[in-house]
Amino acid sequence: MGLGVDIVEVSRMAASLARTPGFARFVFSDGERAFCESRPFPERHFAARFAAKEGFLKAVGRGILDGVPLHEIEVVQPDRGEPTLRLGPAATRALASVGARGARVSLSRGARVSVALVVLS
Q1: Which of 83, 78, 82, 118 is nearest to 102 (CA)?
Q2: Count: domains in the chain
Q3: Cα separation of 23 and 45, whole Å?
């Protein structure tokens, strides 16, 4: 039904987090921030989650400022197992607007880039 992929440079994410203290609170949920900050190299995890948010928006045909707040697209990851997306009301409406009922996400993190792939079903 839809596919979105995004790649984020880890150094740019680290710079954004350092330069703008409110950036993380604006973009990421409390759970996402806690998860990322509890891991080695948190900037890699933040970058992967930002890529997932962008990937979701691409999959539903929306832009970053097109009615779906980024914090409504939440990557939830158990200690073991695959990450999933938890969607807020506006994100759920965007998903439904393209005829999809669900979204799956795959994340990859590296020293230089993090990548996310979102597939709608």
Answers
A1: 118
A2: 1
A3: 15
Span 96-120, pLDDT tens digits: 999 999 999 999 999 999 999 999 9
Q: Kindly list the distances between the CA atom of residue 110 and the CA atoms of 9, 16, 52, 120, in Å, as whole numbers in the listed order.
A: 9, 18, 15, 25
Which of 100, 17, 26, 34 lies closest to 61, judged by CA?
Answer: 100
What is the sign, positive or negative, of the torsion defined by CA atoms of 86, 90, 91, 94? positive
DSSP helix/strand/coil, 94: helix
Token output for 99: 């005829």
Which ranges constitute the DSSP H helices of the chain?
A: 10-19, 23-27, 30-37, 42-59, 89-97
Measured distance CA(50)–CA(74) in Å, rounded: 9
Q: Read off the CATH number of the domain in which 28 is found.
A: 3.90.470.20
Question: Over the stretch 55-74, which tens digit does the pLDDT of each residue have?
Answer: 999 999 998 888 899 999 99
* Domain carrying residue 65: 2-120
Q: Calculate the dihedral angle through the C-alpha atoms of 39, 41, 42, 46, rounding to the nearest 10 degrees.
A: -120
